[in-house]
Design brief:
- The protein has a domain of 89 residues: GpdQ, catalytic alpha/beta sandwich domain (Purple Acid Phosphatase, chain A, domain 2, 4-Layer Sandwich).
- The chain contains three helices and three strands.
- Strands 1-2-3 form a three-stranded parallel beta sheet.
- Helix 2 packs parallel to helix 3.
- The chain is elongated.
């Protein structure tokens, strides 16, 4: 069986989807606000599936730049899980390297970032990734 790694093709679609939702679908309804409350905006980005290759990292940096360029500026970002690709099949050292790449990239956001774990954040789930005894 041929198991070649392919570059993720869904990244540009996800970036476009997030930006479209922000532009057209996430406007606060004034009727839900009290007199003293201001509407706020945030970004929900999910399934980044970052990999330690230059193309994957560059695409994530492009998404971050697009989010930082939104006007009005969002108050925060929620990262909805699956930040890196297949950590469940990685050993701890490799997963740590992936997460450091993600952490370094997330430092480029011009606002606070809150992370939610997904199934790809479970390290050691795969039998192949568990330490031998």
């Amino acid at each position: 069986m041929n198991h070649k790694k392919r570059a993720p093709t869904h990244c540009p679609f996800l970036i476009a989807l997030v930006l479209a939702i922000l532009q057209f679908g996430c406007h606060s309804r004034p009727a839900l606000l009290t007199k003293n409350e201001e509407p706020f905006r945030f970004v929900f980005a999910t399934d980044v599936h970052l990999q330690p290759d230059p193309l994957s990292v560059e695409r994530f940096h492009q998404a971050i730049a697009a989010i930082n360029g939104l006007a009005p500026k969002p108050q925060f970002v929620i990262m909805g899980g699956d930040l890196i690709e297949n950590s469940y099949a990685l050993d701890l050292e490799s997963a740590d390297r992936f997460y450091r790449i993600c952490q370094d990239a997330c430092m480029k956001f011009g606002m606070p970032v809150y992370h939610i774990i997904g199934n790809n954040e479970i390290i050691g789930w795969s039998k192949a990734s568990r330490p031998s005894r």
